[in-house]
Structures are given as C-alpha cells and as structure tokens.
Design goal:
alpha/beta; 6-stranded mixed β-sheet; 280 residues; 8 strands; 8 helices; Aminopeptidase; globular
Length: 280
C-alpha cells in the first residue's frame, strides 16, 4: 500500500501539444502480463526473486543491490555526468492482501521503467546527465506493520537506496498507479512543485496533458518511495492516480488497465527525462 492523507491545494499550468511515439506501450503491457502471471510477489518471496532475475537482464547495465532483510533492488544505468536523474518504481506486491497480483500497483510502474530504459537509450543526447532506473524492493509493508509506522517498516528498498546514493542523485521520478482505465494524475501534495510543473509541460509537448489535470493538485499527500528522497533534500515526484478504485485489493488485475494511459505516462516521462538529462 501507499499511505494516503488529505491535504491542501496547488496550481500548475499546462503546455502545448504534439503527439509523439517513442514509448512502446504494447511491449510494456506484455511485461505487466509476465509479472502478473507469476502470482503474488511480496518482498522476499520466491516469486519476487524470480522476477528480479528477469528484470536485471532487461535493464542497461543491470545489477542487483542488496537491501537489509534479504531484499534486493534491481538497478540499471545509462552513464553520464552527475547528479543522476532517477526513474523508479517498486516491483513487490502486497504481503497482507491474499491474491494481490498488483497489475497497477507495482507491475505497471515496473514495466514502464524497463520500457523507458529502452526508449531513453535511443533518445538521450550525446552529452547527458546520468539516468538511473531503480526497481525498489519492499515498498509494501510486511505483515504486522501498524499503519502509523508504515514509513518506518515499509519503503525498504528506497530507504536503502537513499542511504547509499543520496549524494549522487539530482531528482527522482517515481511511477506507481499509472496504467488504470480513466487515468488522471494531479500533483500529489508531497511532490516537488517545480519538477511537477516540468512534468506537466512535458506532457503537454507530447499530447498527454489531459492525463495530468490541475484539478485536485495538492489535495492528497502520499507516503511512497519518494519520501526517503524528499527527506534527503532531493526533489522528487510521485506519479500516482490515488483515485484508482482497485488499489490495495485482489481485484488489481490486468483487465483494469489501459494501454493508452500507460503510453501517455511513458511518453510524458520520456520527454521530461530527456529535457532534464540534457540540462534543461
């Protein structure tokens, strides 16, 4: 789960519009299906470890970084100058919800990160900032974690990554619930407003502005894998449709997803990362 609470309001603008086709949403949806076919994949499980073995081969320079408690982050890199732009998602599923396969809550974000790595390998300019792709383990809380202690006992992979790499990171773009039918992603209240404004401008440039409405900006605060980055002073944004009906249920299955929504997010994030990595 991600921990959600009400908050205040915000206001950002939108850019123009030009349809592009860099992100392969069909291939990303195939990776969603592959993950879901493995069934529930809670952190530390055999299914999670099997998935990690596949994901590490799908990322450029793929590697496993150990996380305390026997967990493991899966990372990739397009080398360049520091500080790095990090694009992240979590690949584990709920440990406390029987039958949870996390089509949108884990699998979609993971698939998008992998496909973005393929896209950006082609699209980045010759001289660019480093771009890292991080699939966090242990975002979901383990069994027995009280809700009020979520941030202390969950977010295990992101907390470990920040402890190890905070000085190397310039910003984080986190992908969570990004592929559901009817997708609308206003700014989550904890997300950095300036970086979010750049995301919205990027979405406008690729014809995806409608998926990032200003209505609802700042109304909901979420504790997610961006929280450790924010606490370390690193600008971070969380792309998450917190109105997703099937969040934290066993009904979070592929039939609830929409390839067009996933494509819109992929194109917008690709545009943002190219701009950030080029120094814009």
């Amino acid at each position: 789960m991600t921990l959600i609470a009400g908050c205040g309001s915000g206001d950002e603008g939108e850019g123009g519009s030009e349809a592009v086709d860099r992100f392969d949403s069909d291939r990303a949806m195939e990776l969603v299906a592959l993950q879901v076919q493995k069934g529930p994949r809670p952190a530390g499980s055999a299914a999670s470890r099997e998935l990690a073995e596949h994901l590490v081969t799908a990322l450029p320079g793929g590697a496993i970084e150990p996380v305390p408690g026997g967990l493991q982050n899966v990372v990739g890199v397009l080398p360049g100058s520091l500080p790095a732009v990090v694009v992240g998602a979590h690949y584990d599923t709920e440990a406390t919800i029987p039958g949870h396969v996390g089509a949108n809550d884990g699998a979609a974000g993971t698939a998008a990160v992998v496909e973005l790595a393929r896209t950006l390998e082609r699209e980045l300019p010759a001289e660019h900032r480093e771009v890292r792709f991080v699939l966090f383990d242990g975002e979901e809380e383990p069994r027995g974690c009280p809700e009020q202690e979520f941030e202390q006992c969950a977010l295990r992979g992101s907390r470990a990554y920040v402890r190890e790499h905070a000085g190397e990171v310039g910003e984080l773009i986190l992908l969570d619930y990004i592929a559901n039918a009817g997708l609308r992603i206003p700014r989550e209240a904890n997300s950095d407003p300036a970086l979010w404004a750049q995301l919205r401008e990027a979405a406008g440039r690729v014809g995806a502005a409608d998926f990032f409405p200003a209505e609802g900006d700042g109304e909901t605060a979420i504790i997610d894998d961006h929280a450790p980055f924010l606490r370390a002073g690193i600008p971070a944004i969380d792309l998450i449709d917190f109105a997703y009906t099937y969040a934290d249920t066993a009904q979070d299955t592929p039939d609830k997803l929409d390839a067009e929504a996933l494509d819109a997010v992929g194109e917008a994030v690709a545009e943002l990362v190219v701009a950030r990595a080029a120094g814009s």
